[in-house]
Amino acid sequence: MTKRRETEHINAEKQKIIARAAELLVAWYRQEGRELPWRKDREAYRIWISEIMLQQTRIEAVRPYYARFMEELPDINSLACVPEERLLKLWEGLGYYSRARNLQKCARQVMEEYGGRLPSDYDKLVKLPGIGPYTAGAIASIAYGQAVPAVDGNVLRVLARLLADREDIGQPAAKKKAWKLLAAAMPQDCPGEFNEGIMELGETVCLPGGRPLCEKCPLEALCEAHRQGIEEELPVKAAAGPRRREERTVLLLWREDGTGRRTAIRRRPAKGLLAGMYEFPSLDGFVGEEGVRKYLDGLGLVPLRIEEAGRARHVFSHVEWEMEGYLVQLAPAGGGEDMPEGDEADKVKAADFLYVDSEQMKESYALPSAFRAYMKWV
């Protein structure tokens, strides 16, 4: 038997296993699937929003965000028209704010090209901003009944254990192979339930990072990893490289202006990490109180009192921030503070700061969760 014929034979056998598993999985999902707000109907917009929110976020954490988002932006037109600042505020706490911007970019394109309705065709969906193969598969199968897979980490884990496959699931080739196997074997009459079922199994039974709950799994008798006793060894995924570590000094600048206490925030650059988000002013490195005074002096700001606000740490996907905070009471605004001179003139000006009260910050300005530890000082 040639290598090609052997590969075709192996794939055919795997497809048979998946097809048998599909029947059990759909029956299990119909009985055990959780009641989730985006499952109440099969409306494409709701599925789309939920899937984007659920990327790298737990279901229980998403629920309140989803409810708030849907209450204010119930359809594609409202999403396309909402001011970006309000959109980011609604997204606050979910992280990866580029996803929210892509949602709006996509909504506007759908309004222009598809009359405000997400297309039912997978190939059209996958070309829209922010909709990759997984999300396109979820929308096409769940909302429109197209027999296309939706392959995410949960699906790759279930499939690796079911087939005892030791290929690194972090590699694009593994995802591509999984997509082809599933596409060839998934049920044509209920593709959405199949996709939701395998995702549900990965989230609630075939768990990552330890022993899965095999005794509760509808695929226990079919699972090759379980038969071999290697469930905890799979899936194989190469360890991620070390994150870059950055030190930052966070400044909680506040002043009284006659109406109460207001704290300074500023908008980050339009590109890069946390692009376009609001933040507390910060400096590279741990500069200490002397460095803080020097920075404020360069901006023409007069500190009345400087106190330590503690240390905090935030982990992004590729970088870690180690932060040291200072709570600084500023003198009331005076003339000239917005006109720094010398080397500081080309840097951030004090005029770039917005001074907002706690209610404004809560209602109108989206601050990344990286600064959550310092919100108590506002």
Plain-language structure description:
The chain has 378 residues and is an alpha+beta fold. It has 2 domains: 3-233, Orthogonal Bundle (Endonuclease III, domain 1), CATH 1.10.340.30; 244-377, Alpha-Beta Complex (Nucleoside Triphosphate Pyrophosphohydrolase), CATH 3.90.79.10. The chain is built from 14 helices and 7 strands. Strands 1, 2, 3, 4, 5, 6 and 7 form a 7-stranded mixed β-sheet that branches. A hairpin with a 4-residue loop joins β1 (244-256) and β2. α2 (44-54) packs across α3, α8 (133-143) crosses α11 and α9 (153-163) packs across α11 (191-204). The model is unreliable at 335-348 (pLDDT under 50).
Can you count the helices?
14
Q: How far apart are the first and last residues' alpha carbons, in Å?
A: 72 Å
Q: What is the strand tally? A: 7
Helix content: 40-55%
Using only C-alpha atoms, the radius of gyration works out to 26 Å
If classified by CATH, what would the architecture of the largest domain be? Orthogonal Bundle
Strand residues, percent: 5-15%
Mean pLDDT: 90
Class by helix and strand content?
alpha+beta
Oligomer: single chain
CATH homologous superfamily title of the largest domain: Hypothetical protein, domain 2
How many strands, what sense, and barrel or not for the largest sheet? 7 strands, mixed
**What is the CATH C-level name of the largest domain?**
Mainly Alpha
SSE ordering? HHHHHHHHHHHHEEEEHEEEH
Name the poorly predicted regions.
Answer: 335-348
